[in-house]
Amino acid sequence: MVTKVAQKNQTKNYTIRVRVKFQAYDHFVLDKVVLEVAKAIKNSGSEMAGPIPLPSIKKRFDALKSPFVYKNHWSQYEMITHQRFIDVFDPNPNTLNTLQKLDIPSGVKVDIKMVS
Questions:
Q1: CA angle 56, 61, 62 (to 5 degrees)
Q2: Residue 65 and residue 72: Cα distance in Å, rounded?
Q3: In 8-38, which positions are buried (b, 16+ CB within 10 angstroms) versus exposed (e)?
Q4: How much is the pLDDT for 8?
Q5: What is the pLDDT of residues 48-94, one digit of tens each?
Q6: Which segments of the chain does DSSP mark as H helices, in order?
Q7: Rounded to two decimals, what is the model's pTM?
Q8: Which of the listed CATH numbers 3.40.920.10, 3.40.50.20, 3.30.479.30, 3.30.70.600 matches domain 15-115?
Q9: Mean of pLDDT values over 26-40
Q10: ∠ at Cα 34 (25, 102), nearest 5°?
Q11: What is the pLDDT of residue 81?
């Protein structure tokens, strides 16, 4: 009899794994695109894991607002990049064609990588 602990350690061995990584400044648009891609992957018949959120990248900038008179007046700006990824296990050709034909809005960066 196999215990629950042993069942957790048994994982499937996938020969090919495709990682689809998304980046965007607006997390509402990003979530919408990720759900659309996840639905397309499920409809094509492949197994997937995700969408998995990654930590956001925050870039902060300080700019001197008044360079001539008031040297102590600074403006602070912040740019946040939100990230998500989906792993597709053993994708079939239909899945890859579906991923390439999806209409992705501008402002969302998509990276597709083969991971072994």
A1: 150
A2: 9
A3: eeeeeeeeebbebbbbbeebebbbebbeebb
A4: 47
A5: 887 888 898 899 988 888 777 777 788 889 998 999 988 888 888 88
A6: 4-9, 27-44, 93-101
A7: 0.70
A8: 3.30.70.600
A9: 89
A10: 105
A11: 92
Higher-confidence position of 22 and 100: 22
Q: Cis omega before residue 51 (within 30°)?
A: yes
∠ Cα 109 94 33 (to 5°): 30
The crossing angle, in degrees rounded to 10, of helices 93-101 and 27-44 is: 150
Any idea where the domains of the chain sit in the sequence?
15-115
Non-local CB neighbours of 74 within 8 Å, separated by 6+ positions: 62, 63, 64, 65
| CA-angle at 64, arms to 63 and 69, nearest 5° | 170
Element (H, E) at 74: strand 74-89
The count of other CB atoms within 10 Å of the CB of residue 87 is: 18
